[in-house]
Every structure is written in structure tokens, then in C-alpha cells.
Amino acid sequence: xxxxxxxxxxxxxxxxxxxxxxxxxxxxxxxxxxxxxxxxxxxxxxxxxxxxxxxxxxxxxxxxxxxxxxxxxxxxxxxxxxxxxxxxxxxxxxxxxxxxxxxxxxxxxxxxxxxxxxxxxxxxxxxxxxxxxxxxxxxxxxxxxxxxxxxxxxxxxxxxxxxxxxxxxxxxxxxxxxxxxxxxxxxxxxxxxxxxxxxxxxxxxxxxxxxxxxxxxxxxxxxxxxxxxxxxxxxxxxxxxxxxxxxxxxxxxxxxxxxxxxxxxxxxxxxxxxxxxxxxxxxxxxxxxxxxxxxxxxxxxxxxxxxxxxxxxxxxxxxxxxxxxxxxxxxxxxxxxxxxxxxxxxxxxxxxxxxxxxxxxxxxxxxxxxxxxxxxxxxxxxxxxxxxxxxxxxxxxxxxxxxxxxx
Length: 407
Known about the structure:
- This protein is of the alpha/beta class.
- The chain has a domain at 77-306: Aspartate Aminotransferase, domain 2 (3-Layer(aba) Sandwich).
- The protein contains 15 helices and 14 strands.
- The protein has helices at 4-19, 69-82, 90-93, 97-110, 121-132, 147-156, 169-177, 203-213, 241-244, 272-281, 283-286, 293-306, 309-331, 351-363, 393-404, and strands at residues 30-34, 43-46, 53-56, 114-118, 137-142, 160-164, 185-191, 221-226, 252-256, 266-270, 343-347, 366-367, 369-371, 382-386.
- The strands form 3 sheets. It has a 7-stranded mixed sheet with strand order 4-10-9-8-7-5-6, with helices on both faces. It has a 4-stranded mixed sheet with strand order 1-2-3-12. The protein has a 3-stranded antiparallel sheet with strand order 11-14-13, with helices on one face.
- A hairpin with an 8-residue loop joins strand 1 and strand 2.
- Helix 2 packs antiparallel against helix 12 and helix 7 packs parallel to helix 8 (203-213).
- The longest helix has 23 residues, at 309-331.
- The chain starts with a helix and ends with a helix.
């Protein structure tokens, strides 16, 4: 069957993206990693650039644990013991001991009754929200929530869907107050850390609002937070946005193993009843392979490292490097979003200038990612810098110097 007419249409769409500056284009290919040396952190070799080393400032690996000797050894040992793949979904051929141990470790780390693994954080969001949403459920969502939350709500088709302006809790409260007459259940869903901006949700205040209105709903007001950018790399002990806002616990917490923990996969922690229900009803769990047993062992080693004095020292260094970079941006007169998280956006507010600055940084040996519409709203184009515990003061100063030289 020929696809010539479809091909022509798709090529036109790609040309429109290219001409507007919104085409993501060819992905950079990393071919080697050079270890820390001479007071600088790791450097990366990129295909097409020979032996020129690049400073990576666009990685979610906030603690550098993907290069941790202890984490690598845990995965290597598990590969030899369990093989390289899980073989099937968990309900068909059973599960592997590393999955069970990791779930218990994550539940303990977050102070919850139970945890459940998914193949990715995106799959976790898609697999958690729809089973909890019925045709009598109202969902209220922050306007800057991640794409996974937007798509999960669309898949679930709730009775009511309301969007509140970013972090506008007065609007959230007004919306929640008008729903109890028509809906028996309400779900407030928010990112913990908003990945494009690096600011975080006031989960303590959101939980207080939920508690205030909970008696009005026959099936409760439930708060769900996707803290994928928070868990492991945010807070003094790496417990994410919940820790930063004072230790409050939301009803359903979604996290990832693929960012600060440096491995792969997603997870949810909640009450035993919620997790048991999700195991029976979530298609992204039931019909999709889990992470490999070796990844599970690596992730458990990563959680153990974060939850230690060594891990707390890494987190302290990460906070120091983040603050150094934020202070440097301000001293250069550049605009950013206030916050504490190692996602530090440089607001450029112009698609073309964003692309030119990204190219300048690459010419200066620095990898950074520009974000333009529709990934971010028009007028809020930015370069998202991501600080890591792998970065040294020399690395931070190198990036700031490159920004200072841009004209």
C-alpha cells in the first residue's frame, strides 16, 4: 500500500516545525564518558565532534548515581544471577525477588505502606490516574503539569476536569468547592517539582485544602503528586518535595528511578489498599514488562546510597552548586525562576534567540537544552539548565563564563 500522500503531509508538517524553530531535530549521540579530572566533573564525547569534551548540563541525573561504582556493581551482579530481561509481565510468570525487595525499600524510604513498580515514570502516571478516576470523579490539575498527567486525564475521561492557574491555590479552592454536588470523588493532581521551571508545589497547603473539603465528597478528596524530579535529588535527605514543604505526605506519590536515582523505571507509593487495587486494574502494570531484575537491584543500591551520610553529603554539594549557578545568573543580569531545585531555567522569551544561545553554548563545549513552544508557552522560551552533584565549582564557573560571552 503506497503512503505517498501521507508522506507528503508529514513532510509539510516537519517543514512547518523547522521554519518556526520548533523542530527538535537530530538527537546528540554520546559515544564515550570521560571521568572527573583536574577539578572538573565528567565530560562527554559526542558523535561528530571528535575528541572534544563537553560539560553536560541537561541531564536529570542529579546525583550522578548512574556512574556510581556501587550501583554499577549491584547491576552487574544481578545480571549474572538473573539474566538481562524479566521474561514476561509479572502476573504471567511471576515476579523476581529484586522487584519485591525494591518495592519494599521504596515504601520504607517514603514512609508508606506499599510501593509498586512500573516500566517508567510516564507509564506510572498513565497507569495510576485512570484506574482511580470514575465517571463520577472530578479532577483538578495545575496548568503546568507534565504531559503525562495531561494525557492520563484525557485517557480517564473524568466527569469533570478543571485546570487552575499555576500554583493558584485560591482558584483551586474555588473549583473544589463547586464540585461536591455533582461528583462523589475529587482528585487533585500536581507535579511536585515542575520540570520546565524548577519551582515546586506547596503540597502542605494543597493537603490542607483537600482535608477541608474532604467531608463534602462521598469518596474523599485524593491528592496525587508526580514528584519525579524531586525524589532522590530534592530535600536534605532526598525525599523530594514532601520533605521540602515540611514532611507532609500526599495520598498517592509517583516517583522515578531514572532521574536522581540514576537507573530506570517508575513507581508509586500509597496505602496498601490503593496499591493492591492498582495491581489488579492498571493496564500499564498488568500488560507491560517491568524493569529488569538487574535494574531493580541497581535502583535499590541507589536508594540505599541516597539514604546514607554519603548521600546526604552529595545532596548538600548539589544544593551548593545549584545556589552558585543561580547566584551567577543573577549577577549576570539574567532572568530565572526563583526556587531551590537543581532545574534552573534561563528565561530567554524568544525562540530564535534561544536557539542561538544553545548553539553558542555547544560551541563553548557545554550541553544545554532549549525549550520552545509548544513544550513551553509562547513568550516563556527558555534554556533549562540542570545541575548535578557531579558538577564542580569549576564546571559552574565555566558555564557562567560562556553565558557572559554571548552577544
